[in-house]
Design goal:
Number of strands: 0
Order of helices and strands: HHHHH
Mean pLDDT: 84
Shape: elongated
Strand content: under 5%
Low-confidence stretches: none
Length: 123
C-alpha cells in the first residue's frame, strides 16, 4: 500500500522536475539564487534527452510499483493523465533529441531575457 503511494509520489515529483527543467529559468526573474539550482537540473534533463538515458526516478517508480504488486499503469488520475506526458508512446531517440533541443532553446530564451533585465536594472 505504501509502495503504491510512494510510486505515485515519485511520478508527481518526476513531472514537477520536468516542468522545472523546461520553465524553471523563469524563476530566475524572481530570484537569482534559483539559477544555481535550475542550471544543473536543466543540464541533467538535457543530457537525459540527448544521450537517451533513463532517469533514475523512472527506475525508482517502477521498483515501487513492483513492490506494490502493480504491473502497469492501470486506472487512477495519476496514471491516466501524467504518465502519457512523462512517458509518451512512440518515444524514439530522435524525438528525445528534439525534446532536448527544445529545452536548450527555451532556456536560452529565458536566460537571455533574464540577462537583459539584469543589465537594464544595473544601468
Amino acid at each position: 500500500m505504501y509502495s503504491l503511494f510512494l510510486a505515485n509520489l515519485v511520478l508527481i515529483l518526476h513531472a514537477l522536475f520536468i516542468v522545472f527543467v523546461i520553465f524553471g529559468g523563469l524563476l530566475a526573474l524572481w530570484s537569482r539564487r534559483v539559477i544555481w539550482i535550475h542550471l544543473p537540473c536543466a543540464v541533467w534533463g538535457i543530457l537525459i534527452e540527448f544521450r537517451g538515458w533513463i532517469c533514475p526516478l523512472t527506475y525508482l517508480e517502477n521498483d515501487l510499483r513492483e513492490a506494490a504488486g502493480v504491473s502497469g499503469y492501470s486506472g487512477g488520475f495519476i496514471e491516466h493523465y501524467l504518465t502519457p506526458i512523462i512517458y509518451p508512446p512512440g518515444l524514439t531517440q530522435e524525438i528525445q533529441i528534439l525534446l532536448g533541443i527544445s529545452v536548450v532553446f527555451i532556456n536560452l530564451l529565458v536566460y537571455s531575457y533574464v540577462g537583459w533585465r539584469w543589465h537594464r536594472y544595473r544601468t
